[in-house]
Design goal:
Layout (H helix, E strand, L loop, with lengths): L1 H11 L9 H9 L4 H20 L10 H18 L8 H25 L5 H13 L3 H23 L8 H21 E3 L5 E5 L2 E2 L1
Antiparallel strand pairs: 1-2, 2-3
């Protein structure tokens, strides 16, 4: 999965995690659990939050988030192990890993948007909040990401000797992921007469 490879590469870049990964990464340093396992735990909490907030409006297909979360967690640990020997020393190499990883994350987000079938739990909880309280999705996403980063920083301050996983790369990832995702969506999809989005590959509509 491109998105999980991107998450691992961003971490290996050592310039900070993506906002949504800041808490799981901090927890993986505090607890005897892997990054994938803490990501799974957080995503399960997000899924439960969606169920509570949406109630009967929670679509049954979204229960598939549970097995998908397990797969995502497994791939995160797989790629973290695969890239274990990647230890950049100069800033340019670190920035390159950050940008490559962020691009892969954005590609994964774009594929979710175009497919429009199943949301990952991180996006799902934001959607549930917007539907329940009638807030703008973009604004909720921004506040949610900022809150998550602050939570990650707080955990580090409480349980670790230094702040881990939150650096300039976190800000860069937060700012550019949406723009890159929109670029992929624009070039890999089209909207039909009914307003439904479809994949476009090599200029061909499918």
């Amino acid at each position: 999965m491109a998105q999980t490879a991107g998450i691992a590469l961003v971490v290996k870049g050592q310039l900070g995690t993506s906002p949504i990964s800041s808490v799981p990464y901090a927890l993986s340093l505090i607890m005897p659990l892997t990054f994938g396992q803490t990501t799974l735990a957080v995503n399960i909490l997000f899924l439960l939050g969606q169920i509570v907030l949406l109630g009967r409006k929670f679509h049954k297909v979204q229960f598939l988030q549970a097995p998908v979360n397990v797969i995502v967690a497994s791939f995160i640990d797989f790629f973290m192990a695969l890239f274990a020997d990647v230890m950049p020393t100069d800033y340019v190499w670190k920035m390159a890993l950050l940008l490559i990883g962020t691009t892969l994350i954005a590609f994964g987000v774009a594929m979710q948007v175009i497919a429009n079938v199943l949301m990952l739990s991180g996006e799902g909880i934001v959607y549930a909040i917007t539907q329940t309280f009638h807030f703008d999705f973009g604004k909720v996403k921004t506040v949610f990401d900022c809150s998550f980063v602050l939570t990650g920083v707080t955990l580090c301050l409480l349980y670790l000797p230094s702040i881990e996983g939150v650096r300039e790369g976190t800000l860069i990832s937060a700012v550019v992921t949406g723009y890159i995702a929109r670029w992929f969506i624009h070039h890999l999809s089209y909207v039909d007469d009914k307003g439904i989005m479809h994949f476009r590959i090599g200029g061909e509509k499918i």
